[in-house]
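WARN retry 2 of 3 for item q-0093 after timeout on previous attempt; input resubmitted unchanged.
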Amino acid sequence: MKIKQLSLFLENQAGKLYYPCKVLADAGIDILTLSLADTQQFGILRLIVDDWEKARTVFEKAGSVVKVTEVVAVEVENRPGGLAGILEILEESRINIEYMYAFTFGRQDRAIMIFRFEDSDGAIRVLNTKGVRIVSQTDLKHHQNGREC
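OK item q-0093 returned
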């Protein structure tokens, strides 16, 4: 199952990250996880929120350009080599990873990684056949609230 992620371009200047966080706070939208990548001139803020459609709407009303992409959340064993095992499955299947980042909450023995794949459906099929758990957006919210899935 795929998850909707919002991406916004931000100028690489002090205070520019505050604005999108404030827009979401004012709209009562919870950030489940985020990633910020930067260059000299701009940054890309990637967000997974509890209501992506509402978030897209409030960002657009506030004048932001928002890109919606699909990502895949994968449960990874929280031990040395846990991520390497997932990456080995993907490499053997020649699944290309465009980028990835960690979800900060998980069960004690599990972590969650967010992946953007070149072929998300293919990656999901391969991971499912190897018994890897794909996490839904609802599950992410439960993890964030401290509940087990």
